[in-house]
Amino acid sequence: MSVFTVHEPPLRAAETRPDPQRFVFVRDGFYFWAFALTPIWMLWHRMSLVLLLYIIVAAGADSIVHYAGAGAGGVVLAGLLLSFLAGVEASTLRRFTLARRGWKNIGVVAGDGAEAAERRFFDAWAGSASGEGAGRASPPSAPPPSTPRLAHSSGIIGLFPEPGAQR
Known about the structure:
mainly alpha
């Protein structure tokens, strides 16, 4: 089961409510395409600031590895490690970019896939928006009554005395 964060776009000039068609669901986990084609993936998702930082870090890492005398294999390994890091942190980078553009993180939803997670989220969202209460969490129930204690005069049984017992 995958976990997704749900992001609501900023309202446009003529909108009074957010358009559900524009919501973005960001899956937690490893993104293979962010690992395999890091710069292209960043451009595809319009992450220009992240791409600029990636280029700066990649150039710095390549320079450090080159001046350390590791050779071409070391430079390739450093690039692979940096791309692996981008694949692992891709969802965080997307959330950062969306937040920087004014999108609001409005929830977390789990589902067997993106479609199931969207369906689950919008069912709850529509229920809470219409006032039915389907999407709202129920108030916490009262704790169960404590179990009655049996009176016994034996003192201590086991390693610890009863809570609230007098010494």
